[in-house]
Specification:
With 371 residues, the chain is an alpha/beta fold. 32% of the residues lie in helices and 14% in strands. Helix 2 packs parallel to helix 3 and helix 6 packs across helix 8. One of its GO terms (cellular component) is cytosol.
Length: 371
């Protein structure tokens, strides 16, 4: 979240705090002020796919190619308390704590059945169930520090993630795209709380779902959409323009040893990002790790990164059990309850071009240099 420029300091404090995060004065705007506006809604991690996405996006912001208005966090990969700590360190690491605020969101899905989740875990021992795979921390002493330590100055914003989304969309009608790379509980909560924002959201770009491939949580569900299928269904049933990067394409974009080595041993010298990347992703290429959330920012900026797409009416199974998170794909005629519009999802990506983009952004100097 960007702070107001000095030109606004004469405004009374109560008003100034209400408009915190403004884009700057007309005569002293940074390069990103007029760039496409986004909010990242993420089940954040230090330097897995969510952390990589944030590092890449802030570098693009420094270049003036995107305007990141805020980082929202939601339980998914981990529990909210851990993700908050990782996100606060990330804004410090990138040197953007005065420009990008961190907003805490939902700690639990809109609906969930713990007994069913445990049964699904038992039935799918190789499945990835995110936060449900570990105890929920209840205090700071139970958190795991990022490799470079906890944040020392960055603090959570007082506004909740859902309220921040509502206020931001209303402030910038038809200008804000949500990069939705976690369970979409925060966004669904915002839409339920303030349905008037639906026609004001420019679009959503998800990483989520498994259209025509097996799931990575239970046998049919991809984690982000499996984690809160009620939130997914809430959003699919709106008129918001939506695009999806599903497992169908991420399964075809593996992290290779060559790419890993280019990042952890860059010719330009190591940075805080490359050092943490090396720790967080050590050996990842040897365990069939694919690239997930980071594909969204490439596709958002340039849809030609997608070399193959399909469009269909989509629905998702919200019933607890082995069909939880199963995406129903209707190519021609929607069934009752499916999305009212066809939604485009990516099935092939330009891997070589993307990895040039990926390596470049993750090896740039840190903190971010702004134009």
């Amino acid at each position: 979240m960007r702070r107001c420029s000095a030109a606004f300091l004469i405004i009374p404090l109560v008003i100034a705090s209400a408009i915190a995060g403004c884009g700057g004065s007309d005569d002293n705007q940074p390069a990103y002020s007029n760039a496409p506006k986004i909010v990242i809604d993420s089940d954040f991690n230090t330097m897995g796919d969510d952390g990589q996405l944030f590092a890449m996006t802030t570098q693009l912001m420094g270049e003036g190619k995107v305007n990141l208005l805020g980082l929202c966090v939601v339980t998914g990969n981990d529990w909210l308390l851990q993700e908050e700590a990782d996100a606060l360190k990330a804004v410090e690491r990138m040197g953007v704590q005065d420009k990008v605020g961190v907003y805490a969101g939902a700690n639990y899905p809109l609906q969930y059945d713990v007994a069913s989740i445990r049964a699904q875990q038992a039935a799918n021992p190789n499945g990835y169930f995110g936060a449900w795979m570990r105890p929920e921390p209840t205090q700071q002493s139970q958190l795991t520090a990022p490799p470079d330590g906890f944040a020392t100055s960055a603090k959570l914003q007082s506004q909740s993630a859902a309220d921040f989304i509502i206020a931001t969309v209303k402030r910038y009608p038809n200008q804000v795209t949500i990069i939705e790379v976690g369970p979409p509980t925060n966004l669904a909560t915002a839409v339920q709380k303030a349905p008037e924002i639906v026609p004001l959201i420019k679009g959503i770009v998800y990483m989520g779902g498994a259209m025509n491939v097996p799931g990575n949580a239970n046998a049919v569900g991809e984690l982000n959409w499996w984690f809160d299928p009620v939130a997914v269904r809430t959003l699919l049933q709106t008129s918001i323009p939506q695009k999806v990067i599903p497992l169908d394409v991420t399964n075809t974009v593996p992290l290779t040893e060559s790419v890993f080595n280019q990042i952890v041993n860059p010719s330009t010298g190591q940075t805080a990002v490359t050092k943490v990347y090396a720790v967080a992703n050590a050996g990842a290429f040897a365990t069939n790790t694919d690239i997930y959330d980071t594909l969204t920012i490439g596709y958002f900026l340039d849809p030609t990164y997608a070399t193959q797409t399909q469009s269909a009416y989509l629905d998702i199974d919200t019933t607890p059990g082995e069909d939880q998170g199963h995406v129903r794909v209707y190519p021609d005629v929607p069934a009752a309850g499916a999305s009212p519009q066809k939604i485009t999802y990516v099935t092939r990506y330009d891997n070589n071009r993307f990895f040039n983009f990926y390596v470049d952004l993750l090896t740039r100097p840190v903190p971010v240099k702004f134009q």
